Amino acid sequence: MNAQVIVVGAGPVGQSAALLLARWGIQVLVLDARAKRDSTGSKSICQQRDVLDIWAAAGAGKIADEGLAWTTARTYYRDRELFSWQFEREGPLPACVNISQTRTEQILDEAVAAQPLIEVRWNHEVTGLTQDGSGVTVQCGQRLLRAPYVLVCAGARAQRVRQALGVTFDGETFDDQFLICDIKADLPGWENERRFYFDPVWNPGRQVLIHPCPGGTFRIDWQIAPDFIPTKVDISRKVRQIIGDRPYELLWHSTYRFHSRLASRMRVGRVLLAGDCAHLVAPFGARGLNSGVPDAENAAWKLAFALNGWAGPGLLESYHAERHAAALENLEITAATMRFLVPRTVEERMRRRAALEGGLMAEVDSGRFAEPYWYVDSPLTTPEPTRPFGGRPPKGAPCGPAPGVILPDMRLPGGRLRELCRDGFLLLLGEMCDSRLFVQVLGKVTTAPLAVRGLAEIDGLAERLGAGPDEAWLIRPDSHIAAIIPHAGPESVTDAFRRALGEEEETA
Fold first, then answer.
1. Alpha carbon of residue 423 to chain centroid
2. Each residue's pLDDT tens digit, 380-411
3. Which of 122, 251, 277, 376 is 20 to 30 Å from 462 by CA-CA measure?
4. CA atoms 388, 394, 400, 404: torsion sign
5. Which segments constitute the FAD-binding domain (predicted)?
6. What confidence tens digit (pLDDT) does each residue in 14-51 have?
7. According to CATH, where is 3.40.30.120 located in the chain?
């Protein structure tokens, strides 16, 4: 295969990247150091709405179909329930589903196998990377492979690759361990609820998290002491403390520690880093895979534009600017959660106790659930003072449209709104705008794919967005709003389009 992009790592981020690149017509070679897929354990289970949307575009919509869409999150302190909350319904896809990473990878493998532009090679451990002005040479033992670009999705242990690129991976590892178990049991009333317990009598001083999964299975996470080595007897006792005398089957268990780390660069020349090899966060809030898959999407469309000659000189560098900022936000949010879960100072312990004993929902932090990162400050985004970003909405609530924010989804006859965005840029025009004029002018700017639609053509869209009759909305291929332009004219829209293509001098 004459690959245009080599993807290193066949986990769900690498699989997603390969599928998204192939969707753009790019030939992809996927390399993995393992001999085969290791299909055991639930691992990453919570998949957020916008990630389900990406997978649907990649041909893996079965993930949303098969996942369990839980509705209610309950939080307990010792023996009493503090509060509960529910996701607000927004768009045709569920807010999140629970599904084991094993099944997710199986579905993605099926989609990869059906894609002739993707080749997967196991037993290919990357031992070196070198690059020049025209491409990247990947060394796998004695074998040398070459492609114009490389996307590394090789997980947290990709130290050799990071070192070859001169990338550091600074951060910390938390002392406390977590025991995770997958069990199969009949737990009436728990099938659609996530339960988080602070300091229960059966795990004093620590936390327990319980998630429902498809097929009558449940995932349980216990925070345990740093030096505790759980035996089968310990595991059975812990499970019984939660479910009582009901029969159950232990399907899988493991222990792990949380890490908080960030790569110094996510783009080095022709090599991009994505997923756990670029950032590690504590799993509360499900911000690991739910950040890695958007990395893959961001990288895929920008690499496709570069390979097809549609990109400006700053487009690839914007990958680092956008996704590094997203990783920093996730680190900040999960670090705050960990300070609440495992307080290290007297002040932190007092704040936690006051919040829990007072049942203060706004102060109790069990992990803010994953959200898309909004590229408000991206070099590709055109700011609009009349449409300022309003900041993070309340937990579980949608965000109002603004430049940089992801476009809200909605049902359309025969599909969804975001499906219109996946083949290139989308320009939505108010009824006072002359679409023929915009098509003529923008066609002279670039050959990049661009669809032009009238806001009035899509029933209810202008009202949903709050769009005016003289406005133009430029939407990126990843559904993020690149610009909202009042009193839109060809010149202002052209400027926004050039900016969104990265037609700025690159800085690295």
1. 20
2. 999 999 999 888 887 667 788 999 999 999 99
3. 376
4. positive
5. 3-330
6. 999 999 999 999 999 999 999 999 888 899 999 999 99
7. 375-508
| 479 vs 477: CA distance, rounded Å | 5
Q: Tell me the three-class secondary structure of 288-353, residue by residue.
A: CHHHHHHHHHHHHHHHHHHHCCCCCCCHHHHHHHHHHHHHHHHHHHHHHHHHHHCCCCHHHHHHHH
List, in sequence order, every residue forming a beta bridge with 213; answer none if it has no partner: 217
Start and end residues for every CATH 3.50.50.60 domain found in the chain: 5-68+95-169+261-338
What whole-number distance in Å separates Cα of residue 188 and Cα of residue 266?
A: 45
Residues 475-503: tens digit of each pLDDT: 999 999 999 999 999 999 999 999 999 99
User: Global pTM?
Assistant: 0.95
The CB-side HSE value for 305 (13 A sphere, CA atoms) comes to 32
- Whether the per-residue pLDDT at 107 is higher than 90: the answer is yes
Taking 60 as the threshold, does the pLDDT of residue 178 lie above it?
yes
CATH class of 375-508: alpha beta
Q: What is the CATH number of domain 5-68+95-169+261-338?
A: 3.50.50.60
Give pLDDT, residue 126: 97
- In angstroms, the CA 403 to CA 492 distance is 14
Strand order in the sheet with 279-280: 80-86, 72-77, 193-198, 207-213, 217-224, 169-185, 248-263, 279-280
Give dist(CA 296, CA 319) in Å, integer.
10
